[in-house]
């Protein structure tokens, strides 16, 4: 069983495709009924990252690149960073620098799932700027289930999930050009409900159980 098409393509290079199946990692989260108004006209964009603050997750490199670009955001941006790790203090040092660029960084530390879910529900984007390819990152799926659009990298399992949605923003790198592209594309709308419903069919617990049962019966 492969959690993503990205992994599937690697596995079938070695194994007979007839014995390999894609079964997406499930989440116990459900599509949120508490979402921001899609017609929100203000200029406040809220982005949330949830994960370990380590080198591989790319969160420090992304935030540092925003600071180094010295670009001022045309919209008021708040970036929630949930989690702990070796880069916590380094990120803290960038908070004041980014304020001058109209970007507010909020470091939440570790939080319970209920709080993370609430923060996602009040965000417009879920962020994962990982430096590694990622298999099928649940943080993106849980963010989408809360109505968020995706801001992530254009490779691996991240791009695969992001391409299932209409309004994802994909970065190739953390260059000033990429940062400028992101700042220009960010908007305050939440993901469309119809898109969320289709997405749920792939990543719900019910879908996972159904696919596994089908494999056993075959």
Keyword list:
single chain, 218 residues, alpha/beta, 6-stranded parallel beta sheet
Helix content: 25-40%
Order of helices and strands: HEHEHHEHEHEHEHHH
Strand content: 15-25%
Helix count, per DSSP? 10
Principal-axis shape equals globular
| Main sheet characteristics | 6 strands, parallel
For the biggest β-sheet, the strand order reads 3-2-1-4-5-6
Our Rg estimate from Cα atoms comes to 18 Å
How would you state the average pLDDT, rounded? 91
Structural class: alpha/beta
Detail the poorly predicted runs. Answer: none
Strand tally is 6
Instruction: Measure the end-to-end span.
Output: 14 Å
What does this structure look like?
This protein has 218 residues and is an alpha/beta fold. It contains ten helices and six strands. The protein has a six-stranded parallel beta sheet, with helices on both faces. Helix 2 (59-69) links the parallel strand 1 (44-50) and strand 2. The longest helix has 13 residues, at 205-217. It is globular. The mean pLDDT is 91.
Short summary:
By secondary structure, the protein is of the alpha/beta class. It has helices spanning 5-11, 59-69, 88-92, 95-99, 113-121, 138-145, 156-162, 176-185, 193-203, 205-217; strands at 44-50, 76-82, 103-109, 125-128, 149-153, 169-171.
């Amino acid at each position: 069983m492969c959690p993503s098409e990205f992994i599937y393509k690697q596995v079938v290079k070695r194994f007979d495709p007839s014995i390999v199946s894609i079964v997406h990692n499930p989440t116990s989260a459900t599509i949120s009924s508490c979402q921001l108004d899609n017609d929100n006209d203000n200029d406040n964009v809220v982005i949330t990252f949830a994960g370990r603050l380590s080198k591989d997750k790319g969160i420090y490199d992304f935030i540092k690149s925003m600071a180094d670009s010295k670009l001022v955001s045309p919209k008021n941006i708040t970036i929630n960073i949930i989690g702990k790790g070796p880069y916590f203090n380094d990120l803290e040092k960038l908070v004041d620098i980014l304020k001058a660029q109209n970007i507010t960084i909020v470091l939440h530390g570790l939080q319970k799932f209920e709080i993370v879910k609430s923060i996602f529900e009040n965000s417009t984007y879920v962020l994962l700027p990982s430096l590694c390819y990622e298999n099928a990152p649940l943080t993106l799926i849980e963010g989408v289930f809360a109505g968020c659009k995706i801001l992530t990298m254009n490779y691996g399992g991240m791009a695969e999930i992001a391409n299932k949605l209409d309004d994802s923003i994909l970065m190739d790198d953390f260059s000033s050009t990429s940062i400028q592209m992101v700042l220009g594309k960010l908007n305050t709308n939440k993901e469309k409900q119809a898109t969320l419903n289709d997405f749920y069919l792939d990543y719900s617990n019910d879908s996972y159980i159904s696919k596994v049962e089908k494999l056993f019966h075959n």
